[in-house]
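[step 3/7] inverse_fold.run input=structure_tokens len=460
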């Protein structure tokens, strides 16, 4: 009889302990309801057949949707890539469009309009002066656009370096968390809060650069550049470094703790990949195309001008300062100092004996506007410029659209994840009430067993 009462008492005590553990866990969940990245924890009651054991509380486990979390990492990588492109292309686009009426298209139109005016009145000084003015404005507009493109590419380079610094800081923090999690499991305790922190950092990291995450021994994780070398080998972090710059494409290398360097040429995703793409693909191509356009225009105009005659009978002069190559042409285009100082040297005539009324050379200038041989690749100057604007606009609209799509997709995925992992105050309060009732019932059981035990002892 006494032994049975002791078993009931100990069983009740264990039930009280188990329910108190559950109440403590539920309180923890409620307290962290607004903690970013916190995953609610659950534990099961474990029934025991051993005398006096009855029930115990199992080890708490965080409720996580691993597949959804993996999808979130992928969505963040895509969002970061497109947002990185968008931020740089938004700097580039305004310098190429003519929304304010002062862009390249307007400058080209004004230039050829002034050419036509000189063709109409080849002996007119005011028309010649206006042509010099319009040519100077066109050159300045191209110079300014080239500088803006160069500065945008430099900004992308600097931001890429800053992003790599942020990546390295996150990787170092992940290494520390991995070690702490390993230590927790080594002591037989769970590091669920640390795992939540690690997942938060992985989310941040994936938006900055494309990654693959590989579990190690069920506790730690290793992180790799997507399709490339390791950023983190469990508790050992590596460092990224941006190489190149200036006229060279950006590159990426990884330095290990031992100092060994690994260069990587894999296509990047995440924000870092978007910055690389905007700088070294779209930005580079746009600058090269602008240079080709400027070089073609300068070469075509100078070729005609050198063969013609000015009002003073001079010939062989260039209208623009000569350019030796397309590279840097948009930055280097300038009106010849000879023409700047004496507009009468503008060669409107083809035949010196027909001066001052010959406009035949200037009519050839007018025809350049529709000449598809002016710019390399068989394009007129206007077509070349329109192609540049279209490329930037299309790339920007595409990046903005993809970023918007991924932002919505990411919100949906996070909502879905939260429906599985986040804390529901209502559910937790219901559970807390159930555990409180269980605790009270176990307490009454202990009280009844204790009273019976005292009664039996008095009977002996």
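[step 3/7] decode complete -> sequence:
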């Amino acid at each position: 009889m006494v032994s049975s009462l002791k078993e009931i008492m100990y069983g009740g005590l264990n039930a009280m302990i188990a329910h108190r553990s559950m109440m403590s866990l539920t309180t923890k969940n409620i307290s962290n309801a607004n903690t970013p990245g916190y995953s609610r924890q659950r534990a099961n009651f474990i029934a025991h057949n051993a005398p006096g054991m009855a029930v115990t509380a199992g080890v708490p486990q965080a409720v996580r949707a691993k597949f959804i979390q993996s999808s979130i990492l992928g969505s963040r990588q895509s969002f970061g890539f497109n947002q990185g492109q968008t931020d740089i292309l938004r700097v580039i686009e305004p310098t190429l469009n003519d929304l304010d009426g002062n862009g390249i298209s307007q400058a080209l139109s004004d230039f050829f309009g002034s050419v036509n005016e000189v063709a109409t009145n080849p002996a007119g000084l005011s028309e010649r002066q206006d042509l010099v003015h319009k040519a100077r404005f066109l050159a300045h507009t191209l110079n300014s656009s080239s500088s803006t493109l160069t500065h945008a590419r430099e900004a992308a380079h600097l931001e890429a370096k800053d992003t790599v610094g942020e990546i390295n800081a996150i990787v170092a923090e992940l290494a520390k968390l991995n070690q702490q999690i390993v230590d927790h499991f080594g002591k037989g305790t769970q590091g669920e809060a640390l795992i939540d922190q690690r997942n938060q950092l992985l989310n941040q990291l994936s938006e900055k650069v494309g990654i693959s995450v590989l579990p190690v021994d069920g506790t730690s994780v290793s992180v790799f550049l997507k399709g490339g070398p390791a950023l983190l080998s469990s508790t050992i972090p590596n460092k990224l470094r941006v190489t190149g710059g200036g006229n060279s494409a950006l590159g990426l290398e990884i330095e290990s703790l031992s100092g060994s360097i690994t260069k990587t040429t894999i296509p990047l995703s995440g924000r870092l990949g978007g910055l690389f793409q905007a700088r070294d693909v779209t930005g580079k191509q746009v600058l090269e195309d602008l240079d080709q356009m400027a070089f073609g225009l300068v070469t075509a105009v100078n070729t005609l001008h050198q063969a013609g005659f000015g009002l003073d009978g001079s010939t062989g002069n260039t209208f623009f300062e000569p350019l030796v190559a397309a590279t840097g042409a948009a930055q280097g285009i300038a009106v010849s100092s000879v023409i700047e100082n004496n507009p009468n040297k503008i060669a409107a005539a083809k035949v010196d004996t027909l001066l001052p009324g010959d406009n035949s050379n200037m009519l050839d200038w007018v025809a350049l506007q529709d000449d598809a041989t002016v710019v390399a690749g068989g394009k007129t100057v206007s077509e070349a410029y329109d192609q540049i604007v279209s490329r930037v606009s299309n790339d920007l609209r595409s990046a903005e659209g993809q970023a918007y799509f991924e932002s919505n997709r990411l919100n949906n995925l996070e909502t879905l994840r939260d429906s599985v992992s986040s804390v529901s105050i209502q559910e937790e309060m219901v559970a807390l009430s159930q555990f409180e009732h269980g605790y009270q019932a176990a307490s009454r059981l202990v009280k009844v067993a204790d009273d019976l035990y005292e009664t039996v002892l008095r009977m002996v």
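[step 4/7] annotate
The first strand starts at residue 41 and ends at 42.
The two ends are 12 Å apart (CA to CA).
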